[in-house]
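Narrative of activities, Objective 1.

The group set out to show that a structural description can be obtained from nothing but a protein's sequence at a throughput compatible with the screening campaign. Below is one input-output pair from the validation batch, recorded exactly as produced.
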Amino acid sequence: ISWTQNNWIRASDQPHLHGTAYARSLTTTTTQHTNLLRTPLLNIEADSVLEFYARTSAANYDQRLQIRYSVDGSNWTAIGDEISLTPYVTWAAYEVDLSSLAGARSEYYLAFDAYTTGSGGFVWIDYVRGPEIVPLPPHLYPLLMVLYLSLLHHC
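Output recorded for this entry:
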């Protein structure tokens, strides 16, 4: 059970807000909808929110974050407003209300979609808090371990 990233890396070369590292991505105009930092499957409830801190290296207001959700981890839909990051700001707090997802279905993947509407820049995310991770059924752990060991053997 882990986060999945496209063009995101774990980094610690800049001051971070919490822990020992943060997530960082370089944005371009072609990264929208493809530059996703995805969560494991989460249990969304009526009072669920996604809280995080973000910042950018850019000197403009072009850097964007959009929170997206998916039932299958492949097809993504925006939730909440697009977030325009303030230039050169220190860490700023953000909160996205997830309550509209609660209902008959409660398990979703969430993703941070980082992109730019102009010139590129780095986007950093740190101290993410939100819904609980859905635990995997115990019968899947041996299968995942075999898959993991197989991948290690072929790398």
